[in-house]
Amino acid sequence: MKAFPSKSLGLILSGGGVRGMAHIGVIRALNEYDISANVVSGSSVGALVGALYANGNSVTEMLSFFKETPLFKYNFLTIVKPGFIDTDRYFDVFRVYFPEDSFEKLKRKLHVVATNLQNGELAYFSEGELIGPLLASAALPPVFSPVELNGQLYADGGIMNNFPSEPVEGKVDFLLGSNVSVVSHLEKNALKNSLQLTGRVTGLMIYAINRKKLESCDLLLEFKGLEHIGVLDRKGIEKAYAIGYDQARASLDTLLSQKS
């Protein structure tokens, strides 16, 4: 592990639903050490947190965004699109935070990944309109409907790339990864039903696919305890945030003490 450089830092933020509030805790810890990322790459909730960070929003504003944005709202339900909730209905909510709707207007370089459902390929977005790609990257099937961009349907970036380090690798001096799609030991009684089993299997698949990229980070932050927070459990926002902050602070303390 090499110490933080004086030049450039790349921050990679994984997908993981409400568990992604740990990313905000990481950003708080970085701020307290006066460490700033030059470029950010994110998938799903990591794309949303990354966009807020790149936009210059404070930690308090980031938390407010997720607390105040409704996950389930009656008039957002749809029967005419694939998915229970019409993702396009969130456009106006996002415009409050990103009124200029432009990657170029952000204060840091941002890369967002989404999955093209029609041709089965990844797409990276880093210029032009911002809100559409953000909504697409976080549109988790089958809860949220796909987002149409340039005549193609896009959904959650985590389907094919939950840890999008590719746009940043080789372009910065130090790569810091925050992975909230954790895989820890589960007791046998934690797999009581089909939903829990499906969640566990999906988590194992995502982790296996991204393991090499995770290991390539100069500093990788992963967080014990997050697996017990549901992906869509809004009650876990503060807990996930605290877990992220505490562990990031401890890791940075250790790393920077080695440097000195």
Automatic annotation (TrEMBL):
A motif (GXGXXG) lies at residues 15-20. PROSITE patterns: PNPLA (PS51635). PANTHER family: NEUROPATHY TARGET ESTERASE SWS (PTHR14226:SF29), NEUROPATHY TARGET ESTERASE/SWISS CHEESE D.MELANOGASTER (PTHR14226). Keywords: Hydrolase, Lipid degradation, Lipid metabolism. Residues 11-169 form the PNPLA domain. It comes from the Bacteria. The keyword Lipid metabolism applies. Pfam families: Patatin. A motif (GXSXG) lies at residues 42-46. InterPro entries: Acyl_Trfase/lysoPLipase, NTE, PNPLA_dom. This is Patatin-like phospholipase family protein. A motif (DGA/G) lies at residues 156-158. The active site is at S44 (nucleophile), D156 (proton acceptor).
